[in-house]
C-alpha cells in the first residue's frame, strides 16, 4: 500500500483532463408579425400570437452551459447493490440541477480498476470520483483509521452528526494537504457482523473458534487481532473460495453482503452473529486539484446532493437490515441478534488498540458526546 504515493506521483504527470463539450448557440429572437391585411385579419392575428408564444417559450428556456464536465464515478460495488441504485439517481439529479453542466457516469463492479488503482487516480487529479472506505486513505492521512475504528459509532445518525463537528473538519483539512478532496463521507453500508460454520459468537471468547476472511485493511486486521480470532486478510472472492474449500470457516461482513453472496450455502451449519462491531463510513472522493477546477456553483450542487443522497442511502440500508436477516434465516442460517451477545466484552477487547490511533481522544470524545445526547 505504501507504493501508492510513488504510483500517484508518476501518474500525476499524465492527468486525465476534464472533458469539455461545446453547446449550441443562443435561441433565435421572436419574429415580428406583419401587419394584418383586410383580406385575412384573423389569420394574421393567429400567426402573430403563435410567433409571440414561440419567442416567449425560447427566451424562458435555461441556457445550456458553455462547458460540460464529464466525471467518471467509480465503485467496486456490484450494479445490483442497493447503494448503487441510489448513486444512479444522485448522478441524474446533479446533471439536472447543473442543466447538463456536470455529466456523471457511474462505473460499478470495479470497471475502472480495483481499490488501489482508483485511489491512485484520485490523488493524480483524474476526472473521476471514487466511492470507497475512508480507511483506504490511511497511507496519506493516518486519522483515516481512527474515523472507522471498531465500536466508535452506534449508528449512521451519529456518523452524520459527527461530520458536522470541528474535530471532523480539522481532519478533513489533512486530506486536502495530500491532494484528496472528500466530497461526502457519510455513506454507510450497514452494521458488520460475522458468519461462520457452526460457530455462534456470543462473547469475545467465542472469537477464538473462528478462522475467517477479513478485508486487508488496518482497522479490520486490528479489530480481529484484538478479538483473538484466527483470520486471513484477503479479497472477498479469494475468501469465498477458501470457505468453499474448507480452508476458512467464515467471513465478516454486513447482512447485505451475506445475502447477496450467499456465503451460508458453502458453510456447514452457518451462523450469522450480529456483533455490530463497525459502522463503516464510505466516501466519495476526488483529487483536490480536480475539485478546484470545477466552478464553485457546481461544487455546491455536488456537495449538497451527495449529502442528500447519503441520507437516502443510509435510511434504505437501515430499513433493509431486518429483511436481510430474515432472508438469511429462510436459507437455513442461524441468526444471533445483538441483544443475545455480550457486546461489552468485544468493546473492551478493542479499547486498548483504539487508544493508539491518532486523535483518538478528540474523535471518541466528540462521538460519545453525540451518543449521550440522544
Give an overview of the whole structure:
With 374 residues, the protein is an alpha/beta fold. The chain folds into two domains: 165 residues, 3-Layer(aba) Sandwich (D-Maltodextrin-Binding Protein, domain 2), CATH 3.40.190.170; 130 residues, Bacterial extracellular solute-binding protein, family 7 (D-Maltodextrin-Binding Protein, domain 2), CATH 3.40.190.170. The chain contains 14 helices and nine strands. Strands 1, 2, 3, 4, 5, 6, 7, 8 and 9 form a nine-stranded mixed sheet that branches. Helix 8 links the parallel strand 5 and strand 6. Helix 1 crosses helix 4, helix 3 runs antiparallel to helix 12 and helix 8 crosses helix 13. The longest helix has 35 residues. The relative contact order is 0.15. The N terminus is likely disordered.
CATH topology of the largest domain: D-Maltodextrin-Binding Protein, domain 2
- CATH domain class name of the largest domain: Alpha Beta
Helix content: 40-55%
Q: What does the main sheet amount to?
A: 9 strands, mixed
Distance between the termini: 39 Å
Low-confidence residue ranges: 1-61
SSE series:
HHEHEHEHHHEEHEHEHEHHEHH
Label the overall shape.
Answer: globular
Q: What portion of the residues fall into strands of 2 or more residues?
A: 15-25%
Structural class: alpha/beta
Number of helices: 14
Query: What integer value in Å does the Rg equal?
Result: 26 Å
Arithmetic mean pLDDT: 86
Q: CATH superfamily of the largest domain, called what?
A: Bacterial extracellular solute-binding protein, family 7
Number of strands: 9
Domain count: 2
> What's the architecture of the largest domain, going by CATH?
3-Layer(aba) Sandwich
Amino acid at each position: 500500500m505504501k507504493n501508492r504515493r510513488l504510483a500517484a506521483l508518476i501518474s500525476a504527470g499524465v492527468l486525465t483532463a476534464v472533458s469539455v463539450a461545446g453547446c449550441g448557440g443562443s435561441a433565435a429572437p421572436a419574429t415580428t408579425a406583419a401587419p394584418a391585411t383586410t383580406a385575412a385579419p384573423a389569420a394574421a392575428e393567429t400567426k402573430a400570437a403563435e410567433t409571440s408564444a414561440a419567442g416567449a417559450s425560447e427566451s424562458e428556456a435555461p441556457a445550456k452551459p458553455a462547458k460540460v464536465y464529464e466525471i467518471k464515478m467509480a465503485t467496486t460495488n456490484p450494479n445490483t447493490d442497493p447503494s448503487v441504485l441510489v448513486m444512479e439517481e444522485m448522478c441524474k439529479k446533479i446533471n439536472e440541477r447543473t442543466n447538463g453542466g456536470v455529466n456523471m457516469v457511474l462505473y460499478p463492479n470495479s470497471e475502472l480498476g480495483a481499490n488501489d488503482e482508483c485511489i491512485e487516480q484520485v490523488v493524480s487529479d483524474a476526472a473521476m470520483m471514487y466511492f470507497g472506505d475512508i480507511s483506504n486513505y490511511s497511507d496519506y492521512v493516518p486519522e483515516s483509521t481512527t474515523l472507522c475504528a471498531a465500536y466508535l459509532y452506534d449508528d449512521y445518525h451519529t456518523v452524520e452528526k459527527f461530520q458536522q463537528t470541528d474535530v471532523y473538519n480539522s481532519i478533513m483539512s489533512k486530506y486536502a494537504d495530500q491532494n484528496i478532496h472528500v466530497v461526502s463521507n457519510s455513506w454507510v453500508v450497514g452494521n458488520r457482523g460475522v458468519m461462520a460454520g457452526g460457530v455462534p459468537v456470543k462473547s469475545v471468547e467465542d472469537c477464538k473458534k473462528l478462522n475467517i476472511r477479513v478485508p486487508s485493511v488496518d482497522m479490520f486486521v486490528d479489530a480481529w487481532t484484538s478479538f483473538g480470532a484466527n483470520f486471513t486478510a484477503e479479497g472477498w472472492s479469494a475468501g469465498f473460495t477458501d470457505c468453499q474449500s474448507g480452508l476458512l470457516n467464515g467471513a465478516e461482513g454486513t447482512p447485505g453482503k451475506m445475502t447477496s453472496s450467499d456465503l451460508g450455502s458453502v458453510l456447514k451449519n452457518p451462523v450469522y452473529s450480529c456483533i455490530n462491531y463497525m459502522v463503516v463510513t464510505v466516501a466519495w472522493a476526488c483529487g483536490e486539484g480536480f475539485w478546484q477546477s470545477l466552478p464553485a456553483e457546481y461544487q455546491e450542487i455536488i456537495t449538497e446532493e451527495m449529502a442528500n443522497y447519503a441520507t437516502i442511502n443510509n435510511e434504505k440500508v437501515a430499513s433493509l437490515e431486518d429483511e436481510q436477516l430474515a432472508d438469511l434465516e429462510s436459507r437455513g442460517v442461524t441468526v444471533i441478534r445483538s441483544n443475545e451477545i455480550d457486546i461489552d466484552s468485544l468493546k473492551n477487547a478493542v479499547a486498548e488498540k483504539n487508544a493508539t490511533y491518532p486523535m483518538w481522544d478528540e474523535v471518541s470524545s466528540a462521538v460519545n458526546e453525540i451518543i449521550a445526547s440522544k
